[in-house]
Amino acid sequence: MFRKDFVWGVASSAYQVEGRDKNDGAGTCIWDTFTEEGRTFEHHNAYVSADDMHRYKEDYALMRELGVKAYRFSVSWARLMPEGTGRVNEKAVALYRDMILEMKKNGIEPYMTLYHWELPQALEDKGGWLNEEIIDWFAEYAKVVAENFTDICDKIFTLNEPQCFIGLGYYRGIHAPGKKVTPEESFRIAHNALRAHGKAVITLRKYAKQPIQIGYAPTSGVAYPASNSPEDIEAAKKVYFGFYNDVDNWTWNVSWYSDPVILGHYPKEGLEKYKEYLPEITKEDMELIHQPIDFYGQNIYNGYPVRAGADGEPEFVDRPAGFPKTAAEWPVTPECLYWAGKFLYERYQLPIYITENGMSCHDNVEADGSVHDANRIQFLDEYLGNLQKAADEGVEIAGYFLWTFLDNFEWHEGYSERFGIIYVDYATQQRYVKDSAFWYKKVMESNGAVLSC
Ligand code: GCO
C-alpha cells in the first residue's frame, strides 16, 4: 500500500494544453517561434491545442468527478511576463489565479511548475539559457510568481526536465529553440540552469506569502539490473548515476543535475570525464545551487537493463525481440519505477514524487463515445505496482502524477501522440473519458489497493 497521505495526481504543462487567445496579452514563446518555423510534426502548433485556458472549469470539474486530488500544472513565463522581464501581464495573473482557485474549489491541490519550457522569445533573443543573466531573469520571474500566487499555491517545482530543454532544445536541436550548441556551451547552459534554480528557490522563499514547499523535476532513463543479483544491482546503480554516455549524449545524465542541487557538488566522475568542456565553477556557484528543497520530483517513462560483466564492469543487455513498446516507440519497462525509487531515495534521502509517468497510445473513440485503452491500463498497473513495491520496502514515495490528463501538444511530435486519460477531439474540443481514467479513479480511491501487482 502507499502511505495514507500519498498524493495522487495528473500532470500537464501550460504550453501543451492552454492554447492562446488574441486578447490574452501573452508574449511570444520560443515554441511559437519553433512551430512558425515549421519544425513540428505536420507543422502542428499549440495556438488552440486543448483550449484549456477557456475550458479549465470544465476540465477541473471532470478531474473532480474522476477523483483527482492534485494537479501538476505550469505557469507560462511568456504569458505572465511577455518580454520575460519587467512588465507583468495582468490578464495572466487573473487567469492563473482563477485556475488555481478553481482547482481548489474542486478539491484539487495545485502543484505549480515554474519552468516547463515556456521561455519568452525576447529572452532567447538575448541568448536564452546560454546567457548567464538568465539567473536573474528567472529570479525576477520567480518573484512575480511568489508575489501573485503563493497566497493560494504553496507547492512549486522550479525546473521541468533540464535534460530535455538543454539536450533537445540546445544540443540536439529538435526542441525549441532548435539550437545546436557546442559541448562547452551545453555545460554552460546546464550550469546557468542550476544556478537559476538555486536563485529561484531563494527568491520564492523570500517573497512567498506563506511557507511554501519547493521541489525540482528532472527526468531520467533508468538503468535497472537485468537480474536481482547483487552484482547486477551494483552495475545498474553505477550506470544510473555514472557517466557512461559520450559527450554527445551527456545531457541525459542523472547525477549531474541532481547532486549539485541536493548534495552540493557536481559528481567527481563527471568533473573528471568532461573537464575539458566545463565552465568556471566557483564555490559561490555551488552554494547558490545547493539550496534546501522539500521534495524531489522525477519524470520517469522507461529504462534499460544492465548486468555486471565478467570483469565486474557494467554491460548493457539487449532487449528480447518483440519487447513491448508504446505508440511513441518507447520501451515498456515497469521495473524502472521500482529501481529508480530505490536508487534515488538511497542517494538523495528526500521524499520522491513521480512527477510524470504515462504512455502514448493509438487511442480512438468508439461510436458510443468510449475509448478502450487497455494497454495504457496495463502499463499504469505494472508501473504503479513496481512503485508500490518500492514504497513497501521503505522508499519514501510521496506521490504520483500521471502524464497526462488531456491529450495535448506533444512538442515536436505535435498531436501525433496521445498521452491523455481523456481523449480530446481537437476539431470539436469534445472530451471523451478513456477507460484508463475510470480505472485510475479506482486506483486513487483505493490508494493503490486494486493494483494487480
Ligand atoms: C517530458 C515533458 C512532457 C512530455 C511528456 C511526454 O517529459 O518530455 O515533461 O511535457 O509531454 O513527457 O513526452
Automatic annotation (TrEMBL):
Residues annotated as signal peptide: none
Gene Ontology molecular functions: beta-glucosidase activity
Catalytic activity: Hydrolysis of terminal, non-reducing beta-D-glucosyl residues with release of beta-D-glucose
InterPro entries: GH, Glyco_hydro_1, Glyco_hydro_1_AS, Glyco_hydro_1_beta-glucosidase
Keyword check for Hydrolase: yes
This protein's UniProt keywords: Carbohydrate metabolism, Cellulose degradation, Glycosidase, Hydrolase, Polysaccharide degradation
EC number: 3.2.1.21
Catalytic site positions: E356 (nucleophile)
Tree of life domain: Bacteria
Family (UniProt): Belongs to the glycosyl hydrolase 1 family.
Protein name: Beta-glucosidase
